[in-house]
C-alpha cells in the first residue's frame, strides 16, 4: 500500500469502494464471496473476475441464446409481436441475466391464451440456463409502457401488432 501512497486500509477501502471490514477480511486470506456464490461460479465455470463485470453485448445479438424458443413461439402465435426490453435490450445484462420479452396482440390478448403461451415457453425453455419472462403488454399500464418504450426492440412476430404497440408507446408519453 505504501508503494501506492495509501496510508491505511480504510483509505484503500474508500478508494476502491468497499467496506473496510470486507477489505481486511480479504487481506487476511479469507474469501470475500459467500460460499454459495463460490459454488455457483464453480458450477457455471465462471471466473469471479469476469462474472461480476458489466458486459455490453450487441443489442442485435442480445436475444440469440433464446432464438429457437422465440421461433417456435412465433410460429404458434403469428399474430403476436415479441419485444425485447430490460437489461438485454439496453446492453447492461450479465451472462445469465433473464430475458424480458413483451408480447402484444392487435386484439386483446386474453388470459387463457397468454397462459398457454407462458406454458409453451416454459416447456421450450426447460433445458435452457436462461430465464425467459413473458410480459403481456396488452394489459400493461401506461406507466410501465412509458418505462420501457425507449429500450424496447422488436424481435419477431406481427409487424402490425408492433406498429400498434409503438403507437401506444408514443401515447404513453
Feature tags:
alpha+beta, 173 residues, four-stranded mixed sheet, 4 strands, 2 domains, elongated
Give me a quick take on this structure:
Helix content is 45%, strand content 13%.
What report would you give on this structure?
This protein is α+β, with helices and mostly antiparallel strands and 173 residues long. It folds into two domains: 2-51, no CATH class; 59-171, Beta Polymerase, domain 2, CATH 3.30.460. It is 45% helix and 13% strand. The protein contains nine helices and four strands, in the order αααααβαβαβαβα. It is elongated, with a radius of gyration of 22 Å.
- Sketch the major β-sheet: 4 strands, mixed
Number of strands: 4
Rounded to an integer, what's the Rg over CA atoms? Answer: 22 Å
Q: Taking strands numbered 1, 2, ... along the chain, how are they ordered across the largest sheet? A: 3-2-1-4
Rounded mean pLDDT score: 84
SSE ordering: HHHHHEHEHEHEH
Unreliable spans are none
List the helices and strands and how they pair.
Elements: H1 9-16, H2 20-27, H3 35-43, H4 48-51, H5 67-76, E1 80-85, H6 87-90, E2 99-105, H7 111-124, E3 132-136, H8 142-148, E4 153-157, H9 159-171
